[in-house]
């Protein structure tokens, strides 16, 4: 398996770049969407992504388990997970306020990411994972925002350690960081 991590800020062009990367590797792609339409604006963003993708790509809209991705990938030679930060934010937003900063939940999320990486080791194609970079902004003003940054920052580091290639995208320009 070839694992590529694409990180960058919101609206940096990372998803478009990731789509180009996986399309250059294969035509047989499973697109794994984690986005949630919380409001009209997020629904429009999801629609933009759908319209930009090739119609022949498979689609898996995932809400819960990342580990199931590799079971569903089947004969696809490419998997594009867009995006890890969306999956983490969805998982954290579903929690009641009294669960904020629960270390067991943080461990479960990182375990789930580890399971995805473990399951992907037997995949004979290219997996591209998109994520938001949280290390360039200020400290979040809310406990949920700070927890999100902590969990995602650790997850991004975990992914980058295992990735064959890592890119950061800024203003639509990809920079190769690893590989």
Query: What's the β-strand tally?
Result: 7
Largest sheet: 7 strands, mixed
Structural class: alpha/beta
The main sheet orders its strands as 3-2-4-5-1-6-7
**Element-by-element helix/strand order:** EHEHEHEHHEHEE
What is the name of the CATH topology? Rossmann fold
What are the segments in which pLDDT stays under 50 over at least 5 consecutive residues?
Answer: none
- How much beta, percentage-wise? 15-25%
Shape: globular
CATH class: Alpha Beta
Radius of gyration using CA atoms only: 15 Å
Q: Regarding quaternary structure, how should these chains be classified?
A: single chain
Distance between the termini: 14 Å
CATH architecture: 3-Layer(aba) Sandwich
| pLDDT averaged over residues | 92
Helix content: 40-55%
Total helical segments = 6
Total of domains: 1
Short synopsis of the structure:
The protein is α/β, with parallel strands linked by helices.
